[in-house]
Amino acid sequence: MTPVPKPNTEFPGAGCLLCMATAEAAHSTLSSYVQSLPTDDLSRLKEDFAEALRKKGVDAIVISEPLVVDALAENSAKGANIARRDFTPLKVKYKIDKLVVFSIGKHGISRSYSSYVPTGDPRGVLRATGYIVNLNDNTYDWYKTVVVSRAGERNWDEPPKFPAITNVYFEAIERGKDSFMEPLGQ
């Protein structure tokens, strides 16, 4: 798994600098709270996936340290199903034939804006990618992009603990994890 970023807030549509500053200022308490939310559920995704593979009879190990994909060399081979980075050195390092990678791009809370004006309530979001690289030829055996956006059903502006926001954040995380587990019948 690549390093899991801290959860954060985003305000799409607040495009100009003054609009962004206004949105950030209006949601400073919410942003501070969201940044304090735990990432344990996301970090456990690799263990949950490995356990599901084991139940299918696959000898799966979990690599504990984060994978920094950008630190890998560029792959000289090009093609539609070939990884851009060269993952093949990991075959010897970990004594594995295939590598499952989860990369969390964004998670937290998103609230859409039109310039200075919010156009909707905050939503829990998760954007992530999972893929399996065959380390014999550096090709993808599986590739899945997950984008989850969950709206709340009640008043969200309840500082300091924002219970409705917390709920949609964790719903987005769980739906994303479920989406990754789906091919394994989970």
Summed up, what is this model?
It is built from six helices and six strands, in the order E-H-H-H-H-H-E-E-E-E-E-H. The protein is 31% helix and 24% strand.
Helix content: 25-40%
Strand content: 15-25%
Provide the low-confidence segments as ranges: none
- Would you list the SSEs in sequence order as H and E? EHHHHHEEEEEH
Query: How many beta-strand elements?
Result: 6
Tell me, rounded to a whole number, the average pLDDT.
93
The gyration radius over C-alpha positions equals 19 Å
Q: How many helical stretches?
A: 6
The largest sheet has its strands arranged as: 1-2-5-6
Reported for the largest beta sheet, the result is:
4 strands, mixed
Shape: elongated
Strand-pairing-aware structural class: alpha+beta
| Euclidean distance between termini CA atoms | 19 Å
Question: Describe it for me?
Answer:
It is a single chain. The chain is an alpha+beta fold and 186 residues long. Helix content is 31%, strand content 24%. It has helices at residues 17-26, 28-35, 40-43, 45-55, 89-94, 163-181; strands at 8-10, 98-110, 113-114, 117-118, 123-134, 139-151. The strands form 2 sheets. Strands 1-2-5-6 form a 4-stranded mixed β-sheet. A two-stranded antiparallel sheet has the order 3-4. A hairpin with a 2-residue loop joins strand 3 (113-114) and strand 4. It starts with 7 loop residues before the first strand and ends in a 5-residue tail after the last helix.
